[in-house]
Specification:
2 copies of one chain form a homodimer. By secondary structure, chain A is of the alpha/beta class. Chain A contains 8 helices and 10 strands. In chain A, the strands form 2 sheets. In chain A, strands 6-7-5-4-8-9-10 form a 7-stranded mixed β-sheet, with helices on both faces. In chain A, strands 1-3-2 form a 3-stranded antiparallel β-sheet. In chain A, helix 1 runs antiparallel to helix 4. The N and C termini of chain A lie far apart (46 Å). Chains A and B meet through helix 1, helix 5, strand 10 and helix 8 of A and helix 1, helix 5, strand 10 and helix 8 of B.
């Protein structure tokens, strides 16, 4: 039996992947736990330990092959494919997410937009039409959508999350400034500028 | 001499604070490392260890007083005050941040808006006027601003970050999908929906 990987370790893998993609784009071919650690503010020992959960990726003294380690992390994180995403809430933030350039080649594509505002429904944003929430379950099923991003006001977010899970969504990225409760088995991540800011004020 | 606290520990404190604020708002008065850990997907032992860097906050078997621990974390993270923030880039995302309800009572207030688009400069957004980037240094100095949020396109972000640091900004929260290089001594945090999404695909 394989021991489950601690979630905190899983949470650091996208950060490593991001750094490796940056290095690869720069043309860097070899890196080390020391270099990565310095770049990310994580100890080299921690990085080696985290990666060791998944196998042997480097040799003592020779470092990591950037391209190889990056490919392994893409595979481990299952972003060696493209996940279709439903975006719910097409206000300022929803629009910003719909236009966000950072999804490309990183495993994700927003394929469906939903809003509850009748004046928005039927409008187009880029290639996509904004749809009524009534169509959520049907679209999630038809397009095999497992992930949603919620960008609605705080007071609407819990109900939207429940509708997503009922529709078959397995993982939610929540931008509303409230903590969502989802049923056991569904995943939720909260993204919140304040937690980032507070991490920095500590040092000021 | 006090040992420096590992940055990874500092990074978890805002998450604990967020959970404690949620509990306090619910009216919960006592919690435990076990309860917090279950809520956050972090082991109880890790939470106890993290908090022990900063003092004794609970007694064996009686748990933590939510209000007291919350106040201590506010103090440790220096968000028992209000930090003025400059927001640079008033596109869709900048507007969403300017309207974001989650800053209130959590230590931050956006006090100045900047954009490089001449058609936006002079316009108002809520109580604030959108200003030219030329005024950044002057405004940062006059208002004692130490923090900035960057919500400009990727290709403009590095120059904007450099202008911020030159103006006296000490800490940057970057929304542009590139990794910024800042001089030694300046802090930068990247917020990126993809790292959150990738943390969930691992489990799908």
């Amino acid at each position: 039996m394989t021991k489950p990987i601690p979630d905190i370790v899983v949470g650091r893998l996208p950060i490593y992947l991001r750094a490796l993609s940056f290095l690869a784009a720069e043309g860097t071919q070899v890196t080390s736990s020391h270099d990565l650690g310095k770049r990310l503010g994580i100890s080299a020992a921690q990085i080696r330990k985290d990666l060791s959960f998944f196998g042997e990726f480097g040799k003592q003294g020779t470092g990591y092959n950037v391209g190889y380690l990056r490919e392994q992390l893409l595979r481990i994180l299952k972003v060696d494919r493209e996940w279709p995403i439903a975006l719910i809430g097409v206000g300022d933030l929803g629009r910003a997410l719909a236009h966000y350039g950072g999804f490309v080649d990183r495993g994700f594509r927003i394929v469906a937009l939903f809003d509850s505002d009748p004046t928005k429904i039927g409008q187009r944003l880029g290639d996509l039409e904004i749809m009524s929430m009534d169509r959520l379950a049907e679209v999630v099923r038809e397009r095999g959508i497992q992930m949603a991003m919620i960008a609605v006001p705080a007071k609407a977010a819990q109900k939207v999350a429940e509708a997503c899970v009922a529709a078959g969504v397995k993982a939610i990225l929540n931008y509303a400034p409230i903590t969502l409760k989802v049923p056991e088995g569904a995943l939720v991540q909260h993204t919140d500028p304040v937690t980032h800011l507070q991490r920095m004020t500590y040092y000021l």
